[in-house]
Amino acid sequence: AQSVTQLDSQVPVFEEAPVELRCNYSSSVSVYLFWYVQYPNQGLQLLLKYLSGSTLVKGINGFEAEFNKSQTSFHLRKPSVHISDTAEYFCAVILNTGGFKTIFGAGTRLFVKA
Amino acid sequence: GAVVSQHPSRVICKSGTSVKIECRSLDFQATTMFWYRQFPKKSLMLMATSNEGSKATYEQGVEKDKFLINHASLTLSTLTVTSAHPEDSSFYICSARESAGVPADTQYFGPGTRLTVL
Asked: How far apart are CA A34 and CA A90, in angstroms?
C-alpha cells in the first residue's frame, strides 16, 4: 500500500535557525513528490515539487527539498526560518497510475519562535 | 498563479439540512477537481475526484448519496452535503487541475469551507 509518513508532528525552532521537515514515502509505482504549506484557515499553497531530473528542488520562500530514491525520502529544508514560516507543512505524492491520486502525509506543524 | 475560490468560506447549519459548497477556477479551465476533507490537526483526506461532464469517482468509505458532487462546467464544481449531521462538521477543501492526463500538473487549492452542523 502506498503511504506518506511525516516523522515529526511538530517542529519548534528559533527564528533564523535552519530547519528540516522529514518526509518518507512508500509506493510500488513511481511517484511525483510535493510539499505544500497551509496557513490557518486557508487552503494549501505549493512550495515545490519533484517530477524528474535534478534531485535537489528549489521552491518558494527559500525552501528546498532533496529527493532520495534509495531512502524513499523527500525532506524539506530551509537554512534560516522566519516567524512568518509558522504554518502546517504537508508532504504529498501523486501516484503514477490511472487517476493520479494525491496522497498526503499527516502534516508537520512548524512553529518559529522569536 | 491560478486562483481557485470556494463559497461560502464558513457555513453553520442545523442538523438534517443540506449545504452546498461551490468551487470555482477563476482564470483557468479545470478538467479535474478534487474534494478533500480535513479534520482538526489532521491531513487532507481525498473524498472524490470529478472530471468535467462525468460522474465523480468516490474514495472508499465516502458515501456517494451523502456527498453529492457535480462538475457541470470547466470552472465550477459543487459539493452538496445532504442531511448534514454534527459528525459532518469539518473543513472542506477543493482543488483544481487543468489537465486530466498530466499527473504532475499543479493542483491549485481553494481556501476551504468550514462547515459546522449544530
From this structure: 8
